[in-house]
Amino acid sequence: MMKTFLKIKKIPFLLLVVLGLISINRVWADETKTAEIKLSFHAQDSLKTCNALVMSEGKPLANVVVKFYAKRLYSLLPLGGDITTGEEGIASLDFPKDLPGDEKDNIIVIAKIEDDEHVANCQSQATINWGVKVKNNDHWNSRSLSAARDKAPTLLIIVSNIIITVIWGVIAYVVIQVFRIRKSSSRIKNKTITN
Amino acid sequence: MMEEENEIAENPAAYTEENIAKYKAMDEDLMRPLRKFGWGSKVWIGILLLVFLTGCYEYYQQLKYGLIITGLRDYASWGMYISNFVFFVAISLVGALISSVLKLTHFEWFRPLTRIAEIIAVAAIIFAGLIIVVDMGRPERVMNLFTHGRIQSPIMWDIIVVTTYLTASFLFLYLPLLPGIATCRDRLHGVPKWQKKMYTWLALGWEGNPEQWRIMKTCVRILSILIIPLAISIHTVTAWLFASTLRPGWDSTNFGPYFVAGAFLAGTGCVIVGMAIFRKVYHLEKYIHDVHFNNMGKLLVFLCIIYAYFNVNEYLVPAYKMRGPEEKLLNDLFTGQFAPIYWFVQIFGMLLPACILLFKKARKPLPLTIFAILVVVGAWLKRYLIVSPILLHPYLPIQNAPANWVHYFPTFPEMSIVAASLAGVLLIITIFSKFFPIISIWEVAEGDGIDIEKIYHPIEK
Q: Which residues from chain B sit within 8 angstroms of residue A176, using beta carbons?
């Protein structure tokens, strides 16, 4: 009797467990959608925009925070702060006009979704030649305070040499006088001997 | 003055006789310390040698194992050694203050103190140069400064100024010493042969003839003028070593005069301590009077006030703003790990002497010497505060730096080497005073109205 009761009761219990697992799975699946970012660049007059289209399962994702970065030598430079996607799933960044690029003016732009409640972390990168031309630092070849010893500023060389020559000239004069003290003594001795 | 001239005109022979007697007595008093080498001196020199040799051994260890045996790391790369360097440069300035400035401004009371000031200056600048080499991990590379030095670098300016100032200071000590050396050569009997030879060689055949006096006095006058800009530039350039570096606490346009003011104060403190010791040990009460202490005390008060003014500028103005890394540095100084040293320096090294020495009774030899010792100790600690805490608070901290990089405390080898350098300075001063008169006899005689050029020759004959 008891066994039959347990068997009957077990079925809804097992059903509940299965339903529960399915719902957890659904919720989990909802919270960690895998997404894809597609970067595109648009220039209109002087306004340059970088768009990140966030898609999941072929549909655009709204209200997702996207962070833009520019790749620098040692680390990533954040651009524009946190930007949220609109209804079309696009996060739009006004591209800075003063960002130095490499020798071909290229900048590697990275868009990231980080620590979002509903979308798993993902990133995408693209290269665009919107970098500002940077003059190579040629201080090594021109006269400056930071240059090598043979490229010291001319004025500094002249002034410092004048000061050093004048001061050491005075010291040299005094040293010569010291020898004159000695000479004057022997002269007197010689005079005495001659007399 | 007129009365004196009349007296000479009336009886020149009596005047000369009297002055010769006066000069001879003076000569005898000041030569006495050179005639005996007592137990006290031997023990003192022995202690200094022991400290010096211990430091030499520790330096040998440093050469063998490298700077790793010190507390210096990538953060505090200038620690106790550079603090000590700045201190030596500071006290070397006193030679210029006492000998040149007071001489050129016709202050007469300074005469017995000139040589003490000059030997402190020379000894300090010798060890300032040496301690820089000690701070180098690869000392043999010091030659690279001469072969590959860049005139744009403040380090190069410092090398140029230190060598120039050392040469000028040495000449400034040596030239007025010539009559004294000649007196030692002629009248110091019972000394070893090598010592006699040394006097003969160093005296440059000094006979006290008019030409020799003229040349010597002209050169001393030239050097008195030259040494003032040199002394100021040596300390200003040392200040620029710091000020041209972008760091909180050093990034100041005030640093040159701030260092010069501090150097005058430290040097004056050293001269007071020196004159008190020489007066006591060599029984020079007849030459270093209470009036000298009184005047030096007044000078010390004046310099304390000037230096306090610069301290207000250097600490309180940034403290009013308390921006970024400077806030951390100032908090460390005012209330943090360096607070005991900071407040000791401010109170005992500056404010207390400035207030108490305003009273004449405090400017008597003993209390003044105690305050001067406090000023000197405060001056050394002040240099430590200028160097070490600032290095620990850079504008751009090193990421993931090991814990022992962000704290600095000197190790035993460092302390021992620094103690050796201090002992070295004292050794030079002590040995000098054992071989040469520590008070310039002819300058004191001249100050007493004796025409030294007229009477020197008959005496030596």
A: none
**Residue A71 φ/ψ, nearest 5 degrees:** -75, 125
Q: What tens digit of pLDDT does each residue of B248-260 get? A: 889 888 899 999 9
The pTM (predicted TM-score) of the whole model is 0.79
Beta bridge mates, A47: A44
Of the residues A185, A187, A190, the best mutation for testing chain B's interface (the one with the most B CB atoms within 10 Å of its CB) is: A185
Break chain A into its structural domains and give their ranges. Answer: 33-128, 149-194
Distance, CA of A46 to CA of A104 (rounded, Å): 20
Model confidence at B31, pLDDT cuts 50, 70, 90, reads: confident
Contact residues, chain A, for B178 at CB < 8 Å = 181
| Residue A188 in contact with partner chain B when CB distance is under 8 A | yes
User: pLDDT value at position B2?
Assistant: 47
Q: Residue B211: list chain A partners with CB under 8 A.
A: 184
How much is the average pLDDT of B201-208? Answer: 89
Q: Is the pLDDT of residue B10 over 60?
A: no
Least-confidence region, from A12-16, A38-42, A117-121: A12-16
Which residues of A fall within a CB distance of 8 Å from B218?
Answer: 177
**Smallest Cα–Cα separation from B222: which of A166, A142, A115?**
A166
Taking the C-alpha atoms of residue B287 and residue B279, their distance in angstroms, rounded to an integer, is 8
Q: Quote the ipTM score.
A: 0.87
Q: Sort out which chain B residues have CB atoms less than 8 A from A182's CB and list them.
A: 204-205
Q: Is B223 an interface residue toward A (CB < 8 Å)?
A: yes
Least Cα separation, residue A53 to chain B (angstroms): 36
Cα–Cα distances in Å, from B340 out to A15, B262, B290, B333, B446? 74, 20, 34, 8, 48
> In Å, how far are A101, B87, B127, B391, B424 from B411, measured between CA atoms?
48, 19, 20, 17, 20
Nearest CA in chain A to B244: A145
For residues A101 and A98, give the distance between their C-alpha atoms in angstroms, rounded to a whole number.
9
Q: Which overall architecture, per CATH, does domain A33-128 show?
A: Sandwich (2.60)
Nearest CA to B416 among B27, B70, B35?
B70
Please indicate whether, in this complex, the C-beta atoms of B209 and A188 are within 8 angstroms of each other. Answer: yes
The C-alpha atoms of residue A44 and residue B113 are separated, in whole angstroms, by 82
